[in-house]
């Protein structure tokens, strides 16, 4: 069955990227699945890795790997220098003031847990309030719930509109209680694609003296982030969503705050001096990096940032926006398909439902057509509850996706319709 | 498309659209909820058991075509069966959706779900209702999860 082509013929992609060259950087994209060319549209879950990242990890293990920070031998010095070099790359990427403000963790989730645990235990107590939004990933809900259980604080949630935009009046109303000790919100919603007005949200909190954590897990691969311009207290993201390896996360924190905070975990590398009577902690950032970290992974993240910087985030954003503009009307043409999340400021992802067809069935059928999407609650069950659905299907785009792949997605969705009719 | 038809057979699509025994039993002797944490799907099963025999069985809830059809077909297969056979039937059904074995006669039309064996991520969908039945027989209060 052919999709009706009410839309005019697609103009040539407006993007200025050399897509063929970018795609050639990703060995994994060259394969076929179930006999069809792989169309990977599950990028909001995790993106694929360019050869530069795979090579950087291989070069570390194959050429100069050793434990860092305490070796007197050459390999340890080289590993330390590559690891700390990656920290500088992250600093520059976020435009942080100092490498001391860049803490390596396991993922964005651990970065948020670090703040909830360390900052939370020090600054948040019974009767206090923590404000989050209704469109948070579970990773920016559960750590605060745990903190509330421990401390007796209360979690407050900013609602959003049907389009998926935060209601700022409600946000301000919650901030005005006088009891809010921290605001934590997502920069770019993984379930809706909404890009939140972070600068405004931060200013409104700061006007009341409230510190802010931004969950940047989804935003960093798609739009340029300048933590000094945003002026947020904390910014968290994961390496694996920005073309780096999994198992590495980043927490940016303002130096004065990090210095005042107690350690998150105890162990090696985070100490100055240990006796059984008393331990002096190491300076930043080591104070928050107990134990041997994911050395090769951090170096891989550095390579990923180099790779992304060479393309340029503005070009990435323009290309992905083109894909969204191309995909949205073609998806809306499919009868019974409903896109969830239609914010004016939206990133390149489409979460949708199809009348009478469960997202899991959509996902299975698309997989057989070579199209990899996500079906489920996307670790954002409150968002599903907001719209009264158990799950959605989600196609999310990265820099290496093409208009042809959007066409493959749309054609596969028409097949879903056909099968279920 | 042909291999997809192996999974989404007409019987499955039919039971998905028009699930049988899709209702609430007003006074069940046993009931339980099953939840698939992967997708958040949740179904409730209700049983009326008399003298060790399933007199009536029904279900409610929302799920994918595989879990809905499986639940619907299961209610048809289990109605009138002795309770002592359920564990054995569940095992047989599990084999049908995970291995290359033939579908035993006692499972009725449930053999149409054999295609699930080629889709390992969907086995949990096919067995959700069975997990709920087992939980109901064990009189469990909390929803049973597939993992």
UniProtKB/TrEMBL annotation, chain B:
One Pfam family this sequence matches: NifU_N
NIF system FeS cluster assembly NifU N-terminal domain segment(s): 8-125
Gene3D superfamilies: 3.90.1010.10
SUPFAM superfamilies attached to this UniProt entry: SufE/NifU (SSF82649)
Domain of life: Bacteria
Protein name: SUF system NifU family Fe-S cluster assembly protein
Organism from which the protein derives: Candidatus Competibacter phosphatis
Higher taxonomy: Bacteria, Pseudomonadati, Pseudomonadota, Gammaproteobacteria, Candidatus Competibacteraceae
């Amino acid at each position: 069955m052919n999709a009706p082509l009410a839309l005019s013929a697609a103009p040539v992609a407006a993007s200025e990227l050399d897509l063929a060259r970018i795609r050639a950087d990703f060995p994994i994209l060259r394969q076929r699945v179930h006999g069809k060319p792989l169309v990977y549209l599950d990028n909001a879950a995790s993106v694929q890795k360019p050869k530069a990242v795979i090579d950087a990890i291989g070069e570390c293990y194959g050429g100069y790997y050793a434990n860092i920070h305490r070796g007197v031998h050459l390999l340890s010095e080289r590993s330390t220098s590559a690891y700390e070099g990656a920290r500088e790359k992250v600093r520059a990427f976020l435009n942080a003031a100092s490498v001391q403000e860049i803490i390596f963790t396991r993922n964005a989730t651990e970065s948020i847990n670090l703040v909830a645990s360390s900052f939370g235990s020090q600054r948040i107590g019974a009767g206090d309030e923590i404000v989050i939004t209704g469109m948070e990933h579970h990773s920016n809900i559960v750590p605060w719930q745990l903190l509330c259980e421990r401390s007796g604080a209360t979690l407050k949630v900013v609602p959003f509109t049907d389009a998926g935009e935060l209601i700022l009046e409600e946000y301000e109303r919650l901030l005005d209680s006088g009891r809010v000790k921290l605001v934590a919100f997502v920069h770019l919603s993984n379930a809706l694609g909404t890009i939140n007005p972070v600068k405004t949200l931060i200013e409104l909190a700061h006007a009341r003296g409230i510190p802010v954590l931004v969950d940047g897990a989804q935003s960093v691969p798609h739009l340029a982030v300048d933590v000094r311009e945003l002026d947020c207290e904390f910014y968290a993201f994961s390496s694996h969503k920005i073309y780096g390896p999994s198992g590495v996360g980043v927490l940016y924190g303002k130096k004065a705050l990090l210095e005042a905070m107690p350690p998150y975990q105890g162990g090696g590398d985070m100490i100055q001096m240990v006796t059984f009577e008393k331990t002096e902690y190491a300076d930043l950032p080591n104070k928050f990096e107990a134990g041997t970290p994911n050395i090769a992974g951090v170096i891989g993240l550095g390579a990923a940032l180099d790779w992304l910087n060479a393309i340029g985030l503005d070009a990435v954003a323009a290309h992905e926006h083109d894909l969204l503009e191309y995909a949205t009307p073609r998806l809306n043409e499919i009868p019974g398909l409903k896109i969830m999340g239609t914010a004016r400021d939206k990133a390149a992802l489409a979460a949708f439902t199809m009348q009478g067809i469960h997202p899991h069935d959509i996902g299975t059928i698309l997989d057989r057509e070579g199209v990899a999407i996500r079906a489920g609650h996307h670790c954002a069950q409150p968002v599903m509850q907001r719209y009264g659905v158990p799950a959605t299907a989600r196609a999310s785009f990265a820099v290496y996706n093409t208009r042809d792949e959007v066409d493959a997605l749309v054609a596969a969705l028409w097949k879903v319709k056909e099968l279920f009719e | 498309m042909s291999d997809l038809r192996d999974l989404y057979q007409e019987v499955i699509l039919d039971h998905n659209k028009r699930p049988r025994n899709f209702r609430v039993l007003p006074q069940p002797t046993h009931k339980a909820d099953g939840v698939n944490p992967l997708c958040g799907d949740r179904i409730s099963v209700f049983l009326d058991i008399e003298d060790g025999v399933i007199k009536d069985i029904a279900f409610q809830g929302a799920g994918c075509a595989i879990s809905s059809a499986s639940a619907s077909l299961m209610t048809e297969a289990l109605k009138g069966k002795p309770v002592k056979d359920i564990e054995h039937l569940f095992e047989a059904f599990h084999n049908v959706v995970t291995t290359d074995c033939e579908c035993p006669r006692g499972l009725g039309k449930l053999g149409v779900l054999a295609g699930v064996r080629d889709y390992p991520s969907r086995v949990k969908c096919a067995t959700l209702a069975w997990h709920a039945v087992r939980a109901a027989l064990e009189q469990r209060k909390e929803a049973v999860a597939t993992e």
